[in-house]
Amino acid sequence: MRVLVLKAPGTNCDLETADAFARLACTPDVVPIAELTAFPKRVHDYDIFVIPGGFSYGDDIAAGKVLALQLKHTLLDELLAFHDRGKFILGICNGFQALLKTGLLPGPSSSADAAPRVTLSYNDSGRFEDRWVRLRFDPAQNPLASALQAESLESLECPVAHAEGKVTVSSEADLHSLQDGRRLIIRYAHPDDPEFDAARSVLPYPHNPNGSHGNIAGFSDPSGRILGLMPHPERAARNYLHPLWPRCRAQELRFHAGLAFLKAVVAVAQGRFS
Asked: pTM to 2 decimals?
């Protein structure tokens, strides 16, 4: 599987993202956005298109906004065609912000004028949040949900690092539309109470680090092949990256579950789940 990891000015998670995919026997290329916009059809040489985390263009105007405008005006038609061919688009943190602002999430759209139904706003804490969180995945008739189940991955610990990560939904109807569709809602979860119903109750800070509506940390489009999430699975792809690893390494805990998450993404891109 060939993976295109997009590099824009200010991106800072491209190398660890590429490293994680390389460990899954993929062939990742870090491609500068100037190079891709000069040859937009190059995207079709790949199976997975990733917009990694960072601070693209310094997050001027709003997080991911300048990058989203660039993608919308130079690459959107090719990305829609890429998706229509059954390929996978992944946005992590700043990449999630960009996917929302292009309209690729909540669902593919080439309309530049459509009012956003879901956006990302400033954290309720009023500051940059850099911490490890626990995530859980809603059961759904979604290819990625099936792939995660095959990996026996019901929850995931990984870090967040953002100032504009609060998933904000315009109406209750839109929130229900996200939750009831084939969208694999990724939610912040209580680390000490696995029975906590994060779909119905608001998690306390810092377990929900930004105040997201519905405790949502990420979601996919209805096809399950465009996915955005705020937490960083690529930063949880090696055991020694976890803060508890020095004390608990002998217990063989699954501190590298972020790699299993990305392995599920690869499985969907390979067409093994639908």
From this structure: 0.94
pLDDT digits (tens, 9 = 90+) for 201-253: 889 999 999 999 999 999 999 999 999 999 999 999 998 888 888 877 666 56
Class of domain 2-269: alpha beta
Q: List the catalytic residue out of 83, 213, 234, 256.
A: 234
Residues 6+ apart with CB under 8 A from 245: 239, 255
| In the chain, domain spans | 2-269
CA dist list (Å): 197 to 138, 173, 190, 202, 222 = 11, 20, 9, 9, 23
Burial of 252 (0-12, 13-18, 19+ CB in 10 A): exposed
Q: Is 75 exposed, middle or buried (0-12, 13-18, 19+ CB in 10 A)?
A: buried
DSSP label of 114: P
Spatial separation of the C-alpha atoms in residues 86 and 250, rounded to whole Å = 42
Most distant CA pair in the chain: distance in Å? 54
- Counting DSSP H helices and E strands in the chain, the numbers are 9, 11
93 is catalytic: yes
**Is 234 a known active-site residue?**
yes
Is 157 marked active-site?
Answer: no
Sign, CA torsion 14/17/23/27: negative
Catalytic residue among 13, 26, 93, 158: 93
